[in-house]
């Protein structure tokens, strides 16, 4: 029999199920949520009308036969769900800051970048690459984790010690959290400085309205200036 959820609540559960199980059939949704076939179709039709789910035809795994109708979420739905999760995370962090203070919040921020540090150290291994290579490794690690990162070299034609690199991040997987809690940007910058073993400087951030997050790395600092007679 149908579960005891209001229509909107049930529809959200259907959407969440399509997100986590998709491509998923209407029959599978009905069994999971204990809904009648008619109820499942009603919710899926409504979600499809809203542009939140779409039908994907899946061929049988064995032999011939008609493709089955499966449902997946659209890009619009992913954005909507991400916004909902962001609101929950923002409320939780605000409560944490209220109860535990700024240091507790900074501890959470540091842990959120643990995968960056782990992948960077794994890529470096036992080697001792110079600052330029470490900056390239960091950029690749960030890009692999969804930060849409690229590396820009500046100061070409200038004295080698004045040359620098800029690590640019076009996307923030943390969504809007750094906008509300700048501690996340602070801890990320501190991590970059620690991994690169040099002082770095943030030139812009997505959280403060920039088109990208840009971190200035003085890659020429490790070079020795030529001696003058």
From TrEMBL:
Domain of life where this protein originates: Bacteria
InterPro entries, per the entry: ArsR-like_HTH (IPR011991), Carb_Metab_HTH_regulators (IPR050313), WH-like_DNA-bd_sf (IPR036388), WH_DNA-bd_sf (IPR036390)
Gene3D superfamilies per the UniProt record, alphabetical: Winged helix-like DNA-binding domain superfamily/Winged helix DNA-binding domain
A matching Pfam family: HTH_20
Spans traversing the lipid bilayer: none
PANTHER family: HTH-TYPE TRANSCRIPTIONAL REGULATOR SRLR-RELATED (PTHR30363), TRANSCRIPTIONAL REGULATORY PROTEIN-RELATED (PTHR30363:SF28)
Protein name, entry field: HTH domain-containing protein
């Amino acid at each position: 029999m149908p579960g005891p959820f209001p229509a909107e609540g049930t529809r959200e559960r259907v959407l969440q199920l399509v997100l986590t199980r998709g491509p998923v059939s209407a029959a599978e949704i009905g069994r999971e949520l204990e809904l009648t076939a008619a109820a499942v179709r009603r919710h899926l039709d409504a979600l499809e009308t809203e542009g939140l789910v779409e039908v994907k035809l899946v061929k049988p795994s064995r032999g011939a036969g008609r493709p089955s109708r499966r449902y997946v979420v659209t890009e619009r739905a992913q954005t909507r769900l991400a916004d909902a999760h962001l609101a929950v995370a923002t409320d939780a962090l605000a409560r944490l800051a209220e109860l535990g203070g700024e240091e507790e919040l900074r501890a959470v921020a540091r842990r959120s970048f643990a995968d960056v540090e782990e992948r960077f150290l794994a890529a470096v291994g036992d080697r001792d690459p110079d600052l330029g290579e470490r900056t390239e490794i960091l950029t690749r690690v960030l890009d692999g984790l969804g930060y849409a990162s690229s590396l820009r070299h500046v100061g070409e034609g200038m004295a080698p010690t004045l040359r620098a690199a800029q690590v640019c991040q076009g996307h923030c997987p943390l969504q809007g959290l750094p906008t509300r809690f700048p501690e996340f940007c602070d801890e990320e910058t501190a991590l970059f400085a620690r991994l690169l073993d040099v002082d770095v400087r943030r030139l812009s951030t997505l959280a403060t309205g920039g088109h990208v997050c840009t971190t200035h790395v003085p890659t020429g600092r490790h070079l020795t200036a030529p001696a003058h007679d």
